[in-house]
Design goal:
Blueprint: E1 2-5, H1 10-22, E2 27-30, H2 41-44, E3 54-57, E4 60-63, H3 65-76, H4 85-115, H5 124-150, H6 164-173, H7 187-197, H8 202-205, H9 207-215
Parallel strand pairs: 1-2
Antiparallel strand pairs: 1-3, 3-4
Helix pairs in contact: 1-3, 1-6, 4-5, 4-6, 5-7
Length: 224
């Protein structure tokens, strides 16, 4: 199998860390999204959406991080995506929540517009309003993550065992580190992230990401 990815890519890291922890044999094919390689004809032939990650398994090709995680977990028979219908439904639920809610406002409302020029809004006024909205909405989603999805008693998003939802959610939540967010007002989130950062695949998977975050230290951001 081959995974088209980039170590700074949020959605790639979710899959990369899961693959590392599970010991799944996957060839990593880097796509330099920081230089726009995803928009060039060779990669467009792989994914016309110009997005990573993409998984190739023989002549089978799959896009979307959530779908790739589920496919790999099933293929490997991983306990991180149990067969029980209700347990699986709860995992799917929280993954959809991250994709549809927190990532939309935290990523594309607050973090990315401040980092990447191509996502900066067309005027200073519109840009400031976008970031303000993203910050306010993100604070609400993080409170829900802290109080409801994790809460004071759970070690992981869906109970006391790690699932693919935790890999998915960790990638989305840690993007706040790129603009140096302080999540201390969300202690259950901090505790959960600390637990995930102790997993065997974290250090190698997040090495480039951590370096990227360090490179933005000292810049002026609107952050939590």
């Amino acid at each position: 199998m081959k995974l088209y990815m980039h170590p700074v890519s949020t959605t790639s890291r979710a899959v990369m860390m899961f693959v590392a922890d599970e010991g799944i044999a996957v060839e990593m094919q880097a796509v330099d999204i920081l230089k726009g390689e995803q928009y060039q004809p060779p990669f467009i032939a792989v994914n016309p959406n110009s997005m990573i990650p993409v998984l190739e398994d023989g002549d089978f090709r799959l896009t979307e991080s959530s779908a790739i995680l589920k496919y790999l977990a099933d293929k490997a028979g991983s306990a991180a995506y149990p067969k029980d219908l209700k347990q699986r439904a709860k995992i799917n639920e929280v993954m959809d929540w991250f994709n549809s809610n927190l990532y939309r406002d935290f990523g594309y409302g607050l973090v990315y517009p401040q980092l990447f020029p191509h996502l900066k809004r067309s005027s200073d006024e519109v840009h400031a309003a976008t970031v303000k909205w993203g910050k306010e909405k993100s604070e609400g989603w993080l409170k829900a993550l802290n109080d409801y999805w994790i809460g004071p008693k759970r070690n992981y998003l869906c109970g006391d065992r790690v699932t693919i939802a935790d890999y998915f959610g960790t990638a989305f939540t840690t993007i706040g580190e790129l603009i140096h967010c302080d999540l201390s007002r969300y202690p259950n989130v901090v505790r959960w992230l600390d637990t995930m950062k102790k997993r065997p695949g974290y250090a190698k998977t997040y090495e480039v990401f951590i370096g990227f975050a360090a490179s933005t230290q000292g810049q002026a951001f609107q952050h939590i």
